[in-house]
């Protein structure tokens, strides 16, 4: 039986492995640079874990199969990373993690979840739209999300294919 809990410090390397594995499908759609991108660094994951902003979905043996990390951006819970190991994809694992993060945000009085993602990748923006997210128009993008998008541009991501999204909690 799968369940969601906060991540432990001894699981951070496994979270990196999950992120790397979850990037592999990008290669099949011609986005090898995304597939080959390094995972979140251990310092970032560790800070999220210590602050209670890292969640894992674990299998019956308590092994992580997916994770989400969030940080505060523009007064919202910004989903910095959501990764599901491909062996467990397309089973609602990611949606349940998002719902758990939304519950965490609501419990802290935060109004919404935000994230940035690819418009054209089926398991990115179209998926998040099915999970209740809506694109944030550029005129309503707060300074924190503008900074996130600028950092993505500096990494060389195609900004014509990037979108900021928001889901009320």
In short:
With 169 residues, the protein is an alpha+beta fold. It has helices at residues 12-23, 25-28, 32-35, 42-50, 93-107, 125-130, 143-154, and strands at 3-6, 54-58, 64-73, 76-84, 112-118, 134-135, 162-168.
Shape: globular
Sequence of strands across the biggest β-sheet: 1-2-3-4-5-7-6
What order do the SSEs take from the amino end to the carboxyl end, as H and E? EHHHHEEEHEHEHE
Uncertain segments of ≥5 residues (pLDDT<50)? none
Average pLDDT rating: 96
β-strand percent reads 25-35%
Provide keyphrases for this structure.
169 residues; alpha+beta; 7 helices
Task: Tell me what you see in this structure.
Helix 5 (93-107) links the parallel strand 4 (76-84) and strand 5 (112-118). Helix 1 packs across helix 4 (42-50). The chain has 169 residues and is an alpha+beta fold. It has helices at residues 12-23, 25-28, 32-35, 42-50, 93-107, 125-130, 143-154, and strands at residues 3-6, 54-58, 64-73, 76-84, 112-118, 134-135, 162-168. The longest helix is centred in the middle third of the chain and has 15 residues, at 93-107. The chain has 7 helices and 7 strands; from the N terminus they run E-H-H-H-H-E-E-E-H-E-H-E-H-E. Strands 1-2-3-4-5-7-6 form a 7-stranded mixed beta sheet.
Could you outline the blueprint of secondary structure elements for this entry?
Elements: E1 3-6, H1 12-23, H2 25-28, H3 32-35, H4 42-50, E2 54-58, E3 64-73, E4 76-84, H5 93-107, E5 112-118, H6 125-130, E6 134-135, H7 143-154, E7 162-168
Parallel strand pairs: 4-5
Antiparallel strand pairs: 1-2, 2-3, 3-4, 5-7, 6-7
């Amino acid at each position: 039986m799968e369940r969601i809990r906060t991540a432990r410090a001894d699981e951070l390397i496994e979270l990196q492995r999950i992120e790397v594995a979850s990037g592999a499908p990008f290669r099949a759609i011609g986005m090898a640079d995304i597939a080959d991108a390094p995972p979140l660094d251990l310092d970032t994951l560790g800070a999220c874990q210590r602050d209670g902003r890292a969640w894992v979905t674990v299998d019956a043996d308590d092994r992580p199969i997916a994770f989400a990390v969030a940080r505060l951006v523009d007064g919202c819970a910004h989903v910095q990373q959501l990764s599901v190991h491909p062996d467990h994809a397309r089973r609602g694992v990611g949606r349940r993690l998002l719902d758990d993060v939304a519950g965490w945000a609501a419990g802290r009085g935060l109004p919404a979840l935000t994230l940035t993602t690819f418009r054209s990748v089926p398991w990115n923006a179209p998926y998040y739209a099915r999970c209740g997210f809506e694109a944030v128009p550029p005129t309503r993008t707060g300074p924190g999300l503008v900074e996130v998008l600028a950092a993505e541009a500096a990494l060389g991501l195609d900004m014509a294919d990037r979108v900021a999204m928001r889901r009320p909690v």
